[in-house]
Amino acid sequence: MMFTTLRERAMRNILIATDLSAPSDRALDRALLLAKTCGARLFVLHVLEQQEHTEVFDRQELNATQQLQTYLAARGQGCDAQVKIVTGQAPKTILEQAETLEAGLIVIGLHQITPDDPSRFNKSTAWKVLHAASCPVLLVRQPAFQPYRKLAVGFDFSGFSEAALRLALTFNPESIDVIHAYHVPFEGFLYGADTHQEVHGQSEQDLLRSIEAVMQPLEAAAGGQPVRLTPMLCQGEAVPVFWQVCTEQRTELLAIGTHGRSGLSHALFGSVAESLLRNPPCDVVAVKTSPAASDSPT
C-alpha cells in the first residue's frame, strides 16, 4: 500500500535527557539526527542531583557543560542545539523541562536490563518518564548511523495505535510495517482450516480499513513523498509476534500506543508495552496522545 503524507509534520522541539553514559551518547546521536531531519530545535538536558552549591558541585556542572558542548561541536554541525544543566531529581526534572520547553518528543537512552533483575527497569528514570510524560517518549537502544528508514507500528485497532501510526509518519520513513497480532477465539474447540481463514480474512479487512481511515485525511492534503505501508497479520501473542517481525524485517524503530489518560495503564503496559519497552527488539517510541487531540505529536 503506497500513501503520500505530509512529511513536514514533525516535532518542533526535542528534549534529549542524558546522564553522560554510553547509552545516552547513542540517544544523543539519534536526537541530533532527528533534529536535523525534522528541522527541530534540540535541548540537551543533564540533571545534577540536588545539593548545595559547593566547589565540587560547581566543578561537576562545569565539566558536564564542557563535555556536552564539545560533543555537540564534534557531531552537531547544522543542528540548533542548546545545553541545559539543571539541578533536581531526574524523572521529575525531565518531565518539568519537557512541559516548559513544549517538547514534542523526549529521547532517552535505554540501559541494559539483566535477565536476573527484570524489575530494575520499573525503578529506572526511563520507566518513570514513560509513565508520566504527556508527549511521546523514544527509547534508544541501537547506535544511530542514519535516519530511521524502516519502521513498524503495533496495531490493535484502538485510537492509541492510530496515534502511533500518525507519530511514525513524522519520522519520515521509507516504509512502515503495520503489525496486528490476532488469535482465533476458542481455538482448541474449533476444527478445520475454514475457521482460521475466516478469522484471518476478517482481521485483514479490519486492518486495511483502519489504515485507510488514518491515511486518507493526511493524503488528501499531502505534498510529500510516498511512504510504503505493509499490513502484517500474524497469529499469536503480541510480544513474540512483534519481536519476530521486527527481527526478520530488520526494523529500526517500533511505535506503540499506550492506553490510559493518566499514563500507561496496567492492562496494556503491564503486559505488552512493558515487555517491549523493557527489552525491545529495536528502538521503540511510545505515545499515549489521544487521536482527537492532534495529527502530530506537538
UniProtKB/TrEMBL annotation:
<protein>
    <submittedName>
        <fullName>Nucleotide-binding universal stress UspA family protein</fullName>
    </submittedName>
</protein>
<dbReference type="Pfam" id="PF00582">
    <property type="entry name" value="Usp"/>
</dbReference>
<comment type="similarity">
    <text>Belongs to the universal stress protein A family.</text>
</comment>
<dbReference type="InterPro" id="IPR014729">
    <property type="entry name" value="Rossmann-like_a/b/a_fold"/>
</dbReference>
<dbReference type="InterPro" id="IPR006016">
    <property type="entry name" value="UspA"/>
</dbReference>
<keyword id="KW-0547">Nucleotide-binding</keyword>
<feature type="domain" description="UspA">
    <location>
        <begin position="148"/>
        <end position="288"/>
    </location>
</feature>
<keyword id="KW-0067">ATP-binding</keyword>
<feature type="domain" description="UspA">
    <location>
        <begin position="11"/>
        <end position="141"/>
    </location>
</feature>
<dbReference type="GO" id="GO:0005524">
    <property type="term" value="F:ATP binding"/>
</dbReference>
<dbReference type="InterPro" id="IPR006015">
    <property type="entry name" value="Universal_stress_UspA"/>
</dbReference>
